[in-house]
């Protein structure tokens, strides 16, 4: 995400949300995104697997929070382009009256968001999109208050997007500012890419040269620190591919450089 909200859709510069959409089999992308996406696959063939597995993780985490933790409010920051089984679909499948706020500042995302809201107008819950940059969390909180009840627990989600933060300190500031605003009993759902895979780290470095907003993978220790002060749910911080999957069903899961977890604010 860039520092200021975009005012036009750039088709000459690759965008991570559109490339992600391409890797997941979506159609909301441009030639430049497909070119960069294909070049990225040559560097790290596992990146498409990461895109697919991250969506599976989102669905498992949201479903768990709605079913087992009684969460009916979700604040999905840096949501990206709508694709298969979005946050509101997973949440409202369990809690039809669930309230979801998506946050993004990309014009293509917002264009599709308006269409999605019209399509889902009959849903009993509430789904809203907020145009904002996650580098300004105070604005996000103010906008989310118009939809969500900040006296009740909220699931705050940062799904593979904070590698675009201007710095690691800024990453921590963003997360902690939002979490400070939500009440006890709220949850953080978070993951990002790590430096464990040399191919993935190389891919990120090459992507930065393409003109897209750089994505910085970090160490597992750095990502785990995002959960400081929170109570991590089992199995704790670890690979997203196995979160929420019973141990006896984990054989054969792919290995990707994507780590995170789900944690409760005490």
Automatic annotation (TrEMBL):
GO process terms (BP): methylation
Record flagged with keyword Methyltransferase: yes
GO molecular function, one term: methyltransferase activity
Coiled coil spans: none
Keywords attached to this entry: Methyltransferase, Transferase
Name of the protein this chain belongs to: SAM-dependent methyltransferase
Species the sequence originates in: Nocardia stercoris
InterPro entries on file: SAM-dependent_MTases_sf, SAM_dep_MeTrfase_SAV2177_type
């Amino acid at each position: 995400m860039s520092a200021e909200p975009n005012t036009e859709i750039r088709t000459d510069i690759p965008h991570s949300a559109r490339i992600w959409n391409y890797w997941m089999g979506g159609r909301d992308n441009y030639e430049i995104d497909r070119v960069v996406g294909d070049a990225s696959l040559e560097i790290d063939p596992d990146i498409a697997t990461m895109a697919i597995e991250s969506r599976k993780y989102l669905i498992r985490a949201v479903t768990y929070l709605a079913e087992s933790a009684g969460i009916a409010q979700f604040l999905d920051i840096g949501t990206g382009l709508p694709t298969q089984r979005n946050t509101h679909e997973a949440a409202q499948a369990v809690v039809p009256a669930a309230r979801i706020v998506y946050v993004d500042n990309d014009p293509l995302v917002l264009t599709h968001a308006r269409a999605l809201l019209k399509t889902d107008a009959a849903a009993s819950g509430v789904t809203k999109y907020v145009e904002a940059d996650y580098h300004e969390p105070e604005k996000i909180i103010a906008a989310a208050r118009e939809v969500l009840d900040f006296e009740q627990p909220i699931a705050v989600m940062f799904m593979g997007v904070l590698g675009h933060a201007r710095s690691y300190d800024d990453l921590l500031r963003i997360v902690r500012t939002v979490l400070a605003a939500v009440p006890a009993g709220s949850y953080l759902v978070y993951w990002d890419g790590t430096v464990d895979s040399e191919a993935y780290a190389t891919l990120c470095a090459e992507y930065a040269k393409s003109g897209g907003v750089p994505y910085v993978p970090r160490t597992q220790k750095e990502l785990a620190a995002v959960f400081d002060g929170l109570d991590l749910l089992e199995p704790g911080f670890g690979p997203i591919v196995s979160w929420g999957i019973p141990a006896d069903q984990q054989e054969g899961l792919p290995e990707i450089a994507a780590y995170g977890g789900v944690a409760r604010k005490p």
